[in-house]
Amino acid sequence: MSRMLTASECAAWLLAHDDYLVISHRRPDGDTLGSGAALCSALRRAGRRAWCIDNPETISLHRPFVTPYLAGEGAKPVTPVTVDVASEGLFPEGVTGPIPLAIDHHPSNSRFAENLCLAAERSSCGELVLEIIKALCGGIDAGEAKLLYMAVSTDTGCFQYSNTNAATLRAAAELIDAGADNSELNITLFRTQSRARMALEGRMLTGLRYFRDGKVCVNTVTLAMLAECGADENDCDDLAGLAGKAAGCVISLTIRETAPGESKVSARSKPGVDVSEICAVYGGGGHAMAAGVTLDCPPEEALELMLRAIDERCPGL
User: Fold this and answer.
1) How confident is the model at residue 178 (pLDDT cuts 50, 70, 90)?
2) DSSP letter at 113?
3) What is the CA radius of gyration of the chain?
4) In the structure, what pLDDT confidence band is assigned to residue 232 with cuts at 50, 70 and 90?
5) What residue ranges do the domains of the chain occupy?
6) For the structural domain made of 195-313, what CATH number should be given?
7) Furthest CA-CA distance within the chain
8) Torsion of CA 196, 206, 156, 270, to 10 degrees
9) Exposure class string for 22-31: b at 16+ Cβ within 10 A, else e
10) What CATH number labels 3-190?
């Protein structure tokens, strides 16, 4: 079982060690990458040697944000720290334990690290890292503000998801005051899409399926669909929000074929329905209204399994 640390205790632990490798999770999003890069920057400002792991699944949209912090030739990190990683199953390729410190905001965290700084009430890991950096360095610089704005905004869907709260907006305002250009970042992160992505969204919306009297809405994205749209991994960031826009939807599932015989399920829900419990049936997890699981089967089989789990955990939906 992990020893629990507050943000200030986490900062003290970080100051007591050195030579960090900051680790993001598999299929990294803006929160794990932005939070990790900002922490790496702050550790360097605090006089520590720190690098971010070169996560091979980083998409082209996010790579420029993290490139200055990647571990290159000559780096000799010996102290791994995970950021926004909920379980060992989310470690990127090549990463194994033990992990001395984890920084996270997922209530389903498996307590895999020796020390854990967990803030399950936070909408993003970026909010927690902001507090850690302030304890570590006394404040944040403009570069860290930019990275943390990416973290906070992407995990809240540009402040549209139901996990957004007053603390989230106060953190965003603090980051803007510290130098984050929210206008430029919002255009880059949320208002620019490739033609392939737009074609893929069109296919997903026309192929949306409804179950349980329209309360469960499902998108499936196959490898064939990606090929037909000319889309690749760079076009698949944050697809999970589309299905949940349908009127009457309570639970939405986005089931993406990531390899032959493998499907990644992203589940979203309205308040009052805990999709992390549904995903936990097959070893997944996350937040109450945003969770996921990877299943070793094609998308149609994954759909049947998820509908079965919904019936089991939400009878009478």
Assistant:
1) very high
2) S
3) 19
4) very high
5) 3-190, 195-313
6) 3.10.310.30
7) 58
8) -160
9) bbbbbbbbbb
10) 3.90.1640.10
